[in-house]
Amino acid sequence: MRKVWDLIGGVHPPENKHQSVQDSIGTLPLPEKLVIPLNQHIGAPPKLLVSAGDKVLKGQALAEPKGMVSVGVHAPTSGHISDISDYPIPHPSGMSARCVTLIPDGKDEWIEHKGTDNFRDKKPEELLEIIRSSGITGLGGAGFPSAVKLSARQPISTLIINATECEPYITADDMLMQERPEAVVEGIKILSYILGEPDEILIGIEDNKPKAYEALEPHLEGTNIELVEFTTRYPSGGEKQLIQILTGKEVPNGGLPADIGIVCQNVGTTHAIQRAIVHGEPLISRVTTVTGKACSTNRNYQTLIGTPISHLLEHNGFDQNQCSRLVMGGPMMGFTLDNPDIPVIKTTNCILAPTEDELPTPPPAQPCIRCGMCAEACPASLLPQQLFWYAQSQNYERLEAHSLFDCIECGACSYVCPSNIPLVQYYRASKGEIRKLAAEKVNADRARQRFEFQKARKEKEEAAKAAKREARKKAAEQARAKAAENATASTEDSPGATSTTAKSSVADDIIKAAMARAEAKKASPEEQRAKLERGVVRAESHLETVEQRLQALDSGATDKQREQAQAAIEDARLRLEDAKSKLQANTESKPDKAKEVMAKVQASPKEALEKKIATLKDRINVTEEKIAEAEDDALKVALQKGLEKQQEKLRDAEQQLTDAPTKSTTASTKTEDAAATAIANAQAKAAAQASMSDEEKLRASITSLQARLKKAQERLVAAEEEGSEHIDALRTGAEKLQAKLTSAETELSELS
Amino acid sequence: MFELIAQHPIPAALVALGGLAIIFGAVLGFAAIKFKVEGDPIVEQIDSLLPQTQCGQCGYPGCRPYAEAIANGDTINKCPPGGQTTINAIADLLDVEAPTLDEEHGEESDTRTVAYIREDECIGCTKCIQACPVDAILGAAKQMHTVIVSECTGCDLCVEPCPVDCIDMLPVEKGLADWKWNLPPSAEEQIKALRHGDIIASDQDSGDQAA
After folding, report:
1. What integer pLDDT is reported at residue A665 of this predicted model?
2. What would the pLDDT profile of B79-106 be if each residue is shown by its tens digit?
3. With a CB-CB cutoff of 8 Å, which residues 674-693 of chain A face chain B?
4. How far apart are CA A276 and CA A282, in angstroms?
5. What are A99's strand-pairing partners?
6. Which stretches of chain A score pLDDT less than 50?
7. What superfamily would CATH give domain A18-352?
8. Which strands form A225-230's sheet, in the order they lie side by side?
9. B151 and B134 Cβ atoms separated by less than 8 Å
């Protein structure tokens, strides 16, 4: 006999199991419709494979797993899909979720399916794939995809089959073991094969199921599977509690059983896996207990997934008047259903319809008297009263420090509480709040990261621009310095040059000049100017050398030579003049123009306007002079017309100038960060709103709407004139604003 | 050795103390470099408590600048998106009394909203993209823009710049994944809900008072 450890804490509520084990597992006639929720497990919702109107056969996949932690759902019988939409599902929130509605055709016609004669012929991975595609999740409670649980990366030394079923009233696993022990044992062998034959295989069973024990025992002969019986005590069926009872090991905080080399599976799940692998049948039905005094028959049924609970109740003599509330699951951990049309899902092990005497409405909670009974009952060795205190004051930090997340929500503390405090609900609410805060924190961190990244990016862009400007400035300075150097060098060199070098230098000069011209086209204004200056200097020096040569010739030269020299001098002089005039033109036009452009760019709109006015005035003066000079009448008329136009422009410009102060501010802010403007606006609005009554707020919003509408209309008119492509969008925008305005106005009239 | 020390107690003591001073000085100097605190840790802590909507309702261009301002003595009740929870958390951190939210900066709202662009009306002006503090709007000039809902903080800053008014702030739909249990009703609420016959006389009085 194996050593069995004791359950820490725990309670022993009335078992109430005998009512539903009197009869064998029954079957029910097909309901009129089956409502199959797509997501019946923990994890990602599966991908829908059918559409409304499709004919489906029994066992056909309605949805396939999508992602790692996901399983599919299958048609529980043959028929057609009438509808795929949101229906209330079994969930404590009473919310709706996507469901497939199947209208059975009554033929119950199977899709072609084939089992495996000898599962050892297949690799464990292939078996896991079958389990996954057969839609098998844990049937004990949480509904975690079984394939994921079985493909643990850690080496597994112990396989535990949970046949405890510790919660009162529920007998689904008990009856399953009594009636189908060979299938359960074969399922265990499959699990053992998938897990690589662990050293120990244990079935944990409470001592209140002697018939199941007797049924299983003969099938275990010759195997290494050990059936371990222990005292009935709630909640010994909790995964972590069962592991502790059977092995004495404790699952670490925040860890999984696989971390200590243990995998735990429910009996029902084991049976479903056997059906899937040996018979090729997906999970389309399960054993569900229907019990409670409000039902005249208490019995277990092989129930199709998606069967409305009302259908189950109808066939068990349900009396609505006697029933205090309808519970899915057991009295300790189950939740109340608002709507009896909710379907049975993969995790529905029990439907409890108790009378008020059987399961009285809890009396109002009294203050905690610090009796400590909850701490004695807690199977996870927590301090429930302390957790309750912190949950009330919403001190989440202390709750986590007191290992709130180790709470398995078994309800033992609430059960023993003499003050009837709904402790578990406090813990569930706190857990939800902590999870929500954690999710918000993750989002906030991501927002922070994105914000900081954007800031860094903008700074980088700004720095790159500044660096570019700096580089351009430097290049210009260098060019100027180089030009100056060249100029001095050439003036120093040329006077002392001999005629031969002068000759070669002339040739050089021509080449250089050509190159300079070519480069001048590319170069910047400053460089061009520098080059032209150099050209002038060069031309001057050339003239000098030619003149020197003439002087040298004077003594003993022929007339012809003298003539040639004279021509050369003339030529050089012409060249010099040419260069000088070019330089003149350059210094006059180019830098001025560049400066003008710069000034235009830099000048504020106001300055630009002032300048514009000045030029316009000049032009008007010139035109007036011209008119005075003009003799021809026709010319006079034309000039007059031009003058009028110019004067009109001047008036416009002056008008603009008077408007300029306001406009220039908007213009400058526009160029700034758009976000900053929005912030400023929003702030001003918020500040203004704070001190207002509702009516004032409404009035303010109306005025702002009116302003916006006016702006939008102006924009629209402008767009129409331009023939912009956005006219329609602008028009709808304006219309919407108009609508908003009217609604606000009506609201205001209602208020006042 | 011992005799030498015994004969010259004062120089020996001075040497010993000096030696200790050098050793501890070296240790402290090393620790000062090794465990140097980068920046102001309180700013980091405050920043991590702020909701990071970057909405600017506090008057600072983002959450971090506001955190810095708080560290420099600004009031802690200027954050409407964070609401009272954030104010309490910061008050807890700074060990000051928690004030109520300054309404001048906006009102706290229970429902989280995110921006949606009515895409057929968008003219592709990129103004909202420039206004978005967390780069949650995708688009290019003259192309339709759209909001990456999962990244939107609901700061509202993109609504105002839109020239065609095509951005809506819509409440986030709550699904099964967001559902959580509520705290049980308090004792006062329970007593209020009870019929008078169900409670003893003394409780009845307190119930009436509570009501």
Report:
1. 44
2. 988 888 889 889 988 999 988 888 888 8
3. 674-679, 681-683, 686-687, 689-691
4. 5
5. A37, A85
6. 496-501, 590-591, 662-672
7. NADH-ubiquinone oxidoreductase 51kDa subunit (3.40.50.11540)
8. A225-230, A200-206, A158-163, A262-266
9. yes
- Which pLDDT does position A733 carry in this prediction? 79
The percentage of residues in chain A with a pLDDT greater than 70, rounded to a whole number, is 84
CA distance A226 to A278: 23
Is A2 near chain B, with CB under 8 Å? no
- Name residues whose C-beta falls within 8 Å of residue B122's C-beta, 6 or more positions apart in sequence: A729, B139, B144, B145, B164, B166
Encode pLDDT of A56-91 as tens digits. Answer: 999 999 999 988 888 999 999 999 999 999 999 998
Structure token pair of residue A696: 């004032």
Closest residue of A to B105, CA-based?
Answer: A686
Q: Which residues contact A730 (CB under 8 A, 6 or more apart)?
A: A712, A715, A716, A719, A724, B123, B163, B164
CATH architecture of the domain with range B41-105: Orthogonal Bundle (1.10)
Please identify among residues 509-548 of chain A the ones whose CB lies closer than 8 Å to any CB of chain B.
none
A–B interface: beta-carbon pairs under 8 A: 153
Q: Which residues of B touch A678 (CB under 8 A)?
A: 56, 131, 157-158, 160-161
Residues 175-204 of B with CB under 8 A from A: 175-176, 178-184, 187, 190-191, 194
Nearest to A341 by CA among A621, A34, A682: A34
Q: What are the phi and psi torsion angles at A316 (to 5°)?
A: -125, 20
* Cβ–Cβ gap A733/B175 under 8 Å: no
Give the span between the Cα atoms of B172 and B179, in whole angstroms.
13
Domain boundaries, chain B: 2-34, 41-105, 113-172
Residue A524: what pLDDT? 59
Question: Do residues B80 and B106 lie in contact, with contact meaning Cβ atoms separated by under 8 Å?
Answer: yes
Radius of gyration of chain A (CA): 47
Query: CB of B168 within 8 Å of any CB in chain A?
Result: no
Residues of A whose CB is below 8 A from B179: 91, 93, 95, 432
Question: In the 3-class helix/strand/coil scheme, how is A708-729 assigned residue by residue?
Answer: HHHHHHHHHHHHHHHCCCCHHH
Is residue B55 less than 8 Å (CB to CB) from chain A?
yes
Among B192, B197, B194, CA closest to B208: B192
A436 contact residues in B (CB cutoff 8 A): 178, 180
Total residues belonging to chain B: 211
SS3 state of residue A619: helix
**Structure letter (DSSP) for residue A81:** E
Amino acid B22 reads I
pTM tops 0.80: no
* SS3 assignment, position B171: strand
In this prediction, residue A301 carries a pLDDT of 94
Q: Which of B52, B161, B180 sits opposite A444 (nearest CB)?
A: B52
CATH number of the structural domain B113-172: 3.30.70.20
CA angle B191, B196, B197 (to 5 degrees): 120
- Alpha-carbon gap, residue A260 to A242, rounded angstroms: 14
Count the helices and strands in chain A (H runs, E runs).
21, 17
Quick: pLDDT tens for A488-497: 776 665 554 4
Q: Closest to B157 (Cβ–Cβ): which among A455, A679, A729? A: A679
Q: Find out whether A7 and A379 touch, Cβ atoms under 8 Å.
A: yes
Put the strands of the sheet holding A26-27 in their side by side order.
A26-27, A299-304, A285-291, A350-352, A326-328, A335-337
How far is the C-alpha of A59 from the C-alpha of A77, rounded, in Å?
7
| Residue A388 φ/ψ, nearest 5 degrees | -60, -45
